[in-house]
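Bit of a strange request maybe. I'm writing a small parser for structure token strings and I need a real example to test against, not something I typed by hand. Could someone generate the tokens for this chain?
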Amino acid sequence: MARSENTVSVAAPVRDATGEVMAAVSVVLGDSGLRPGTLAPVVVATGQTISRALFRQQERA
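Reply from user aminoacidic:
Good idea to test on real output. This should exercise your parser:
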């Protein structure tokens, strides 16, 4: 998580079936008063959802 004077950003990993990080999901917003801790659970859940979808796709291949 990072915060500058004008933006807030949060990132989370996207993992393959072995658990290796293969990509990342990030959100960068203008500083609207949101705290990174508010955004983090949503971004992490999104990364996990993508990871699960990739795992299922790899199982079918």
